[in-house]
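Quarterly update from the structural biology core.
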Amino acid sequence: MQPMSGDKRSSRPDPAPSRWSYRFQRLMLTPVFRNLLRLGVPFGLCLAAGLFYLSDDTRRDAIRLAITDLRTEIYSRPEFTVRLMAIDGASDKVSDDIREIVPYDFPVSSFDLDLEAIRQDVAGLSGVKTASVRIRDGGVLQVDVVERQPVALWRNAEGLYRVDIEGVVLDEVAHRGAHPELPVLAGTGADLHLQEAMDIYAASGPLTPRLRGLVRVGERRWDVVLDRGQRILLPEYAPVQALERVIALSDAQDMLARDLVAVDMRLAERPTLRMSGDAVENWWTIRNISVENDGS
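Predicted structure, tokenized:
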């Protein structure tokens, strides 16, 4: 008897995938699973091999020694060696201070230099306004400096100091005669108003040969100190204009050549002259004589 055709079809293998094959094919369709197989598995194998290799202390020490030797070889190459330091824009005193604070002995590798730390140390010197640091060709550490320029001598309870226009103390001065070209300022707060003091000094004009200094009074205004013990008391506001008025009056009436102690300009509408004791006594004597002559 011949088997039926339906029996032949039933004996063929089923082309449908199995349950596990179907799930695996579905997973392979997801990008995350494919990337994990392509990248994650090799990375994990390499990591495991590396950890196994580095688990031995001898191998780790050999690797560290090789890295140290390679770094030393690179650092010591001539093109990375700084042999000297050049300083431009600084006086001899400031240059000596810079060389003293730079904590390196030359020659030194450029990799061992902290340029920003050097710049901050140099800029922190009292005589330095700005500083820049770089390594130039030829293995030279170049330090460019802009120095602070002294504009006045500031006298306080501790001594006499040179200061710049910002009121920064540059150094101490032994005596006034060491810098006769600089005006003298005194009084609490004088170092905080240098620009105003310089404006007054510039406006002194014909009084400059007689000018002995400026005194800050009450931390709010200035007195101009002249020779012969004379003073010009300037107001808190518009002191330059007040000084110019005094100079104009002196030129017209020769006022400051007389026996005056002070010219008080604190009240702009009512300037006051203060005479010396001898001048007052002489004035009374002349007045009494004038009265007696009128009476006779």
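DSSP finds nine helices and 14 strands in the chain.
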